[in-house]
Design a protein that fits this description.
single chain, alpha+beta, 3 helices, 38% helix, elongated
């Protein structure tokens, strides 16, 4: 059975952010929390939904400025 609830510190590692950034996301309402007494936990399902919501599709060059659209990077 895999782990479902992560501490704020563990959630930070999972999302590649600091514990402070995770707390900020929770306080701003961007990431739901689960309270266990005084402990603040984050559900892995909510973190995966956060990732999916903020995932950006690969840029095809259509929204780049004209001087960089179509430019080759070596």
């Amino acid at each position: 059975m895999s782990k479902r609830l992560y501490s704020v510190k563990e959630a930070g590692k999972y999302l590649g952010r600091s514990a402070w950034a995770i707390r900020h996301l929770i306080w701003e309402g961007h990431l739901p929390q689960v309270r266990q007494g005084r402990r603040v936990m984050v559900d892995v399902v909510d973190m995966d939904q956060f990732i999916a919501k903020h995932k950006k599709e690969a840029n095809d060059g259509h929204d780049l400025p004209p001087e960089t659209a179509g430019a080759c990077i070596a």
